[in-house]
Every structure is written in C-alpha cells, then in structure tokens.
Specification:
heterodimer, A: alpha/beta, Rossmann fold, eight-stranded mixed sheet, 8 strands, globular, B: alpha/beta, 2 domains
C-alpha cells in the first residue's frame, strides 16, 4: 500500500466550510477526509445523527455528494437498496457508503447492518463513534465507555462496558473491518481507499472526539484523539480477510512497547470526572491485558 | 392466457409483468408464497430483478425506499405484524414521494397471535399517505397490482394493494394473465424526475424547517408544512388518476370500470350494505337471498379506500334509506374506520340531512372468524328495520 501524505491528498473538497458541525467536531475532520478518499462517484446514506445536521437544513446542503437521509434503524438496508437499484440499472461504478453514528450503528442500526453483512452486500459502512447520542444532547449509547457521565447517566457515569462493534463485524466474516481515529486522518484515508477496492460489506469504525459531549475545549480534538491512541485506550487496526494488523500510530506503539498511562486520557475530559482511582486502575488493567494479547499475537506470528 | 392459481401467485405475476427491478421481502404468513414465487421467477431468469432477502420488514421497505430513490421500480409485500413493524417506513415512503408498490395479504394483528384474515393491519396504516386499493378476487389482484405501479408513478405516491389473507391469498381461482406486450403499452418504464446521481448531487429527505426558507439563490423553498400539504393535495387528486388509469387499462385489456366503488344491485336499493375485499363479493349472495324475499337491497364494495372516494360513495348511496357498513377492522374505542369515513362523506355530500340514510356499523370476521352467509343475511334483515343486534359483532359468542 502506498503511503498517503497530506500533500498527496486530493485537493477537491466535498464538504463545504461553514457547515453546521460544532467547533472542533471530530466527525467534521473524518467526513472531510473520508469524502476525499471516496471521490465524486459516491452516494452517501445517512441516518439521523450529527451528520444529518452537518449536511445542512433544506434547501441548503453542505456536501457535494448525493445523499439519502433514511430512518434510524435501516441505514444498512438503505445502502443495500441504493446498491441494488444501481446494479439493476447497470451503474456499478458508484461507491455506496453509509455514514452512521454509534447509536445508528451499535444500537438501533445493528440489525440491518448484521443482515446486510450476512448477505454480503457490496458497500462501505462507516461508523463515526462519538460515544453517545450527541445530537439529542449527550445520552449514553452502546459505545459510551464505562465511567462516562452523560445526560442519562448523570451522577454515577455509565456502569457498563463499551460495546465492541468492530469485533462483532469481524465475527460476520466480512472481508474488511478497520478502526480509525479522526486524529489520524491519513490512516483513515488509506483504510477507506483499501475498503472500497474490496467486495461485500466493509466496516470502518472511527473514534471521533466530541468537545461538547466529552467535556474538553474545542481546540483539543486532535490531541484527545491522539491521547486515546497513545495510551492504548483506542487502537488503530485492520482485519483484512481475517488477518489482524495494527496500523499507523498503534503499530508504532506496539513496536515501541511503551504506552502513556490511561489516566492522561481520562483526566483530559470532564465526562470522566466521577471515576474513582480504582475504576481508572481497572481501565488500565483492561488496556494492559489487550496490549499483552497484541504483543503475544505478534510473537506467535513471528 | 387464463390460469388457475392462488391470489398470491396472481400478485406475483402482476409484479413480474410490471417489471419491478428491486424486490425486498421478509417472510410472514400469509404473504410468503407471493415473494417466494418472485424469488423463483428471478432465480430462473424469467424476471430481470434484484431479490433482497432482508432480515426484517422494516428493512424490506427500507431497501425499497432507497432503491426507488436511486431510480428503480421497487416492490415489497407483507401482512399483519410485518406491516406494523414497517410503520415508520410506511410514513417515510409517502413523505419521500416514492412510487413503491406493496401488496398486503390482510391478516389480523397480535396480540394474541392469529394468522387468519381481517383488515386491521392495512386499515391501521390509513393515515400514512399511501394509496390503498382493496381487491375482491384474483383477477382484481393481478390487475390492481399492474395499475398500482402506473398510479404510483403518475402521482409519486406509494400504493398498497390489499387482499384477504387465505380467502384470496391461498385459494385457487381462474383469472386472465395479461400479455407482456400489452403491459408494455400500459406501463412505460419508470422514469423518476430525480434519482440519486453523483453527477447531480442532492440531499434527499433532509431536515426541513417549520418555516419556508430561501435557498442559496435567494428563492423561497418549501417548509415541512408545504411539502406535507402537497402530499395531501396530490393524494386527493389521485382519485382522478386512479379513474384515468382504470380507463386506460380497460381500453387495452377490456376489464375494469369500477376503480373507486363497485355497486351491485344498488340502482333501486332501499338498503345498501357496504364492505371491502372478498366480503363485498360474499355479500352479493346475501343480497340475492334477500331480494328473493322481496327486500330491495344492494352491495357497495369500496375498492379505493385512500384517497377516500367520498363523492362517489355519497353518490352511490343517493336515495338509500339505510346503509349497513360491515368491516373486518375497527378504530378501537369508537367504530369501524370505514363506517366513520362513510358517515363523514354523507354529511359533506348530502345537504338535506333529513334525506340522509341511517348508517349502522357491523363488525365481522375478526381474526378469521368464519363469516357465515346465513349470519350475514340475518344481520341484514334486522338492519333493514333499522335495528342492529347488540353486540354488533357478527358471530360473537360471549
């Protein structure tokens, strides 16, 4: 795979400046870079989410790609519908791409996503994970991490673990599953380019820091995203035809063998303000166990 | 060509002849044999379409909505709880103005579970903005399915073709199958005014504000209310489109002529019984029995339920002394929806209220309870005298 640099990114912009995303929106970065990777021959499917707002209010649109807004639960089915209609009309060169939030993917959207994955329909499903129902005012979702204060976990923080959607997608046996981060746009770009070259459902799960939802100053979005990866709390990887591989900064972290303590990440956001030291230690232990497995996996492959 | 086949196969043949390009479906009794048949046609190469075996009815209509938005002729079918599970998408398809056609093999809704026929499933979708047609026999099922695509595409409004589960879906009847070249004259290929297209990007079904709003060129664009008003206007005008479509069909195929309501011996009738679907044909036998007894009675079958053909119904009931409405569904807490709609039509169209007929509602065949022709006759006889036995559910045993 050729390595993409900032200078080699296409100059064409598909997301206009001045759109309705919040200042410092992680999705804003991911969507801008992601649409560059997809190019002009693309149809986007969008369930209700922050992206609905980013794309503009009728009759104004902030993106230059045809876009179909769907009901919340049927994003993947809608992608199938567009795909099949294009096939029926002999227009097979167009990328069909679903862009859903974490609620639209992990919670209400998982049935149709699972159905389409099992059928092997040929489209790319992007989940931008801001770890909660941010568009409705920051409620917990299946991917909200343990310990996070949200509007409906107001005092104790979320008690349950984050749902691992990428692992669920790997279990479907699809050809390509990747994780990414808005803080590492070139890694994201390369993964999208690879995904659209493959058949069947492809799934990319993007960690997208959210200033109002996570409780940090808007200028720190990239820093927060980097901290998640540098602490090993969030990992960048891809699973291509069953082969797992850490990528970019996470691959380097593994080689280096050292990670920043997760408290650096947790302390950077006010949503984790009620976590106890014991809870933080528990998070650290789980992150350590995950990375030991990565290291073991590396060794066993050698 | 004439065949002897089930109602579900009649619908499937109609969809095949119409050249649907994308079919998405989830199994549910008693619809299932219809979409199984379509999967057969497609796998055998007899029908050039994409068949999507989705994981739910919500996704079935989701696939059709998206396929139609991308320019394909789309079809699905369902029954009962499957239709209820679609409900959000049913509204969405109409709001997005997509000419999808859906067959509903009518079945009772849970709870408790019941797989047999009544009309509660489609009647409860009355207010979604779809056109609803009720077929009374197999010939009407295949013909209505073909007409549905033309009406849908002429109005940009989705159409539901409803027919009784088991009573029509699973029974065998002879019917004529139109020739493909005649269908080609009747139903041209689907040419949407806009379909999702990278060379002409548009953001479909996006958030639309309560107020009108200028676009980037300064021209005022519709608000949500204008968009919804146009759906209502176009749906009201669809009565005319249904009539025109039926006339065009009749010219080519020689069948039709009763697109809105189907009167039987109503001309001199003092009392008219009103029903939908196969019940309206069963009532013809009852009318014959009562006519032999000297009663001047007739049947009015309601073929188009939404948009409601209020003027045609009021005209057909002109001069009747009494009207009995027999329904396989009701608006729980009040009465049958058709009964309410019919009374409302009479109120609007009969200026002299002293000349308006009395209207009584009856409920029959809920959850597939057998509708005995003798019971219908008995109910009609008491109805002629203006009295309905309570409770007004025919055949109820409490």
């Amino acid at each position: 795979m050729t390595r993409t640099t900032i200078l080699s990114l296409p100059k064409e912009e598909y997301v206009h400046p001045g759109n309705r995303a919040c200042t410092g929106c992680g999705l804003g970065i991911a969507y801008r870079i992601g649409t560059k990777a997809l190019g002009p021959d693309t149809i986007v499917i969008v369930p209700p989410s922050c992206l609905t707002v980013l794309q503009g209010l009728f009759p104004v649109a902030s993106t230059k790609l045809p876009s179909l807004n769907t009901t919340f639960a049927c994003t993947a089915a809608a992608a199938t519908g567009v795909l099949e209609a294009l096939k029926a009309q002999g227009k097979e060169h167009i990328n069909v791409v679903a862009w859903a939030g974490d609620g639209g993917t992990a919670d209400i959207g998982i049935q149709s996503l699972s159905g389409a994955s099992e059928r092997g329909d040929d489209f790319l499903f992007m989940c931008y994970d801001n770890e909660g129902y941010m568009n409705t005012g920051v409620q917990r979702s299946g991917t909200t991490p343990q310990g996070a204060i949200t509007a409906n976990t107001p005092f104790k923080g979320k008690l349950q673990q984050k749902k691992d959607v990428a692992a669920i997608m790997v279990a479907h046996g699809i050809d390509y599953v990747a994780t990414a981060s808005a803080a590492y746009p070139l890694d994201l770009y390369d993964k999208i380019r690879k995904a659209i070259s493959l058949d069947g459902v492809k799934y990319i799960h993007i960690h997208t820091p959210c200033p109002p939802g996570w409780g940090y100053e808007a200028r720190y979005t990239v820093r927060i995203g980097e901290l998640a990866v540098e602490t090993g709390y969030w990992d960048l990887y891809e699973v291509e035809k069953g082969e797992f591989r850490l990528t970019g900064a996470s691959a380097k972290t593994l080689t280096k063998g050292t990670r920043k303590p997760v408290t650096e990440y947790l302390e950077s956001q006010s949503r984790f303000r009620v976590m106890t030291l014991e809870q933080a230690a528990d998070v650290q232990a789980r992150v350590d166990a995950k990375w030991s497995a990565y290291a073991g996996g590396e060794e066993s492959r050698e | 060509m004439h065949v002897i086949e089930t109602g579900n196969v009649a619908a499937a043949l109609g969809v095949k002849l119409a050249g649907a390009q994308v079919v998405a479906a989830y199994p549910i009794t008693p619809q299932t044999p219809l979409t199984e048949k379509l999967s057969e046609f497609i796998e055998l190469g007899e029908m050039d379409a994409r068949y999507v075996p989705v994981e739910s009815e919500h996704s079935a209509l989701g696939v059709c909505i998206a396929a139609s938005s991308a320019g394909a002729r789309a079809f699905t079918a369902t029954s009962a709880n499957g239709l209820l599970y679609m409900h959000e998408q049913v509204h969405w398809a109409a709001g997005a103005r997509l000419p999808i056609v859906m067959c509903v093999a009518n079945r009772a809704v849970g709870a408790p579970w019941n797989i047999w026929n009544d009309h509660q499933d489609s009647i409860s979708q009355r207010d979604t903005g779809w056109i609803q047609i009720y077929s009374c026999d197999h010939q009407q099922i295949i013909d209505d399915t073909l007409k549905a695509f033309r009406v849908a595409e002429a109005t940009s409004i989705p159409v539901m073709v409803c027919y009784d589960g088991y009573l029509l879906s699973h029974t065998y009847m002879p019917f004529a199958v139109p020739e493909q070249e005649d269908v080609a004259r009747f139903l041209p290929p689907f040419r949407p005014s806009y379909a999702l297209d990278p060379s002409a990007p548009a953001n479909l079904n996006t958030v639309t504000l309560p107020e009108v709003r200028p676009d980037v060129h300064g021209e005022l664009a519709h608000g949500y209310m204008e968009i919804r008003y146009l759906l209502q206007e176009d749906l009201r005008n669809a009565v005319r489109v249904v009539e025109e479509t039926d006339a065009a069909f009749q010219e080519i195929f020689g069948r039709g002529g009763v697109p809105l309501v189907e009167p039987y011996r109503c001309d001199d009738a003092e009392h008219v019984v009103v029903g939908m679907g196969s019940l309206s044909y069963q009532l013809r036998d009852v009318v014959e029995t009562l006519r032999a007894e000297g009663h001047k009675v007739g049947v009015l079958g309601v073929r188009l339920y939404r948009p409601f053909p209020d003027a045609a119904i009021a005209a057909a009931l002109q001069g009747a002394r009494g009207v009995l409405v027999m329904e396989k569904a009701l608006s729980y807490g009040y009465e049958g929806a058709l009964c309410s709609d019919l009374k409302s039509a009479l109120y609007d169209h009969v200026p002299d209220k002293s000349r308006a007929p009395f209207v009584k509602g009856l409920v029959a065949g809920i959850g597939g309870r057998e509708i005995k022709t003798a019971d219908l006759a008995a109910a009609l006889r008491s109805g002629l005298a203006g009295s309905i036995p309570e409770p007004n559910w025919i055949g109820i045993q409490l």
